[in-house]
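lol ok so funny story. i was supposed to be doing the assay writeup but got distracted and ended up predicting the structure for this chain instead. priorities right. anyway since i did it might as well share w the group, maybe its usefull for someone
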Amino acid sequence: MTDINFDNVDLGFVVNLQILKDVMKDLSIDGRRWWVASDPEDAAAVSSLTIGFGDQNCKDRLNTLYFEIPVVSSVVPRYHRARLILLFDSSCVKAEGPGFYKADDSIVQDDMEDFLEFFRPLKSALAARIQSDSRSPRSLR
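and the output, tada:
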């Protein structure tokens, strides 16, 4: 497992893969979606899980970005891959590569905007999930 520098973590979510998938399943903004883009079986070995953002069916870098989410657990549970534990925090999530956009007749990139478009809605959805779960009677168990 790669060492994660928790000194930079301000307010992060430690979330299992199943909850992250549940949150991403219904999340869509302007036709852009989030999905698991790498094999959870490999996640512990490479210390991250890749999340795609954009159009899952389009491999064009103008329409799809990939971000690595750090794995906190050192092993993938054998029969419950959905319990893989991830750290979702702005200081730890990183883009696999830049996104590119057409502006007039040239190609430009905006790494910060890419990150914010990926991170903010997913962070808000995770926060809403926590808030919803805290109101649920089952959360009192």
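The mean pLDDT is 82. The chain has one domain: 11-133.
back to the writeup now i swear
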